[in-house]
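Chain A, query sequence.
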Amino acid sequence: MYQQILQDCILVVHRYCIKRKEVSPVMLGPAYNHTMETPASFILVGIPGLQSSHLWLAISLSTMYIIALLGNTLIVTAIWMNSTLHEPMYCFLCVLAAVDMGMASSVVPKMVNIFCSGDSSISFNACFTQMFFVHLATAIETGLLLAMAFDRYVAICKPLHYKRILRPQVMLGMSVTIAIRAIIAITPLSWMMSNLPFCGSNVVLHSYCEHLALARLACADPMPSSLYSLIGSSIMVGSDVAIIAASYILILRAVFGLSSKNAQLKALSTCGSHMGVMALYYLPGMASIYVAWLGQDVVPLHTQVLLADLYLIIPATLNPIIYGMRTKQLRERIWSFLKHFFDHSNLGS
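Chain A, predicted structure.
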């Protein structure tokens, strides 16, 4: 009898705690996980607190997205169609432009749709697919920037051995290594996130499926995946930035050791483009990660979301402008391609 009463009391407390969400799903064990319902979709709210500015944000994002698509397409086409540009630096730049377009295309159209029409629903699978590709593209980009820095180091510090060191087989190996490293780094995070129980609210306080915004909706402790994201990105980006910085220190030493002023200016101009692009990637990216970790008590939520949104689109928009304007050989090929294209268009009309 007493045993039955005790069991009934435990059952009542158990149900009460579930109702109040004061018991962790992990503590409740398999029985609770079995009854949990995974949401069929999430609701992306856009930028919390800036709903009145959504239309202007949509116009700005659309403009930047169009510029990014046109500029990066021009770079890819110009490099692809001109055999004189089939050098390691331009090949890496071509891949970088393609990755930029892919990352921007994975988030910007949906964001513009949210800001314009209010269609904020995204399916569970589509949300985690979007998150995976955003993180994967970011990991690939930091690897490409490292490869481009190595290319400039060899070109300036070891010019006589450039073609021997950066053979096509070496470039292919570097590209494959960059892709494999990104997949290995991102897959565990995606697995941890997709296996978290989501039994409460499905409203994501963000304009795309950003990792920390999704983790806050989990009914279990999201700290393991959040720590993995913070530590993993810090190690990857930190090591890449350290190697890039070391390579540019050696590059600058070699440049200032040149006797010709023209050679110095040419080398500095090329390196300046790379350093500008790297600043566009690393500074907003790491700021976005650490600002999100600080939370709303330090940085307002709308500032966090806006910074994360701009980080995904601004580099893709400005990269073609920086490389197109600052790299003479590429600039000449782009103008030649555009002139050839418009001449044919005029003849056709």
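Residues 64-113+124-197+221-344 form a domain with the Rhopdopsin 7-helix transmembrane proteins fold (CATH 1.20.1070.10). The first strand starts at residue 41 and ends at 44.
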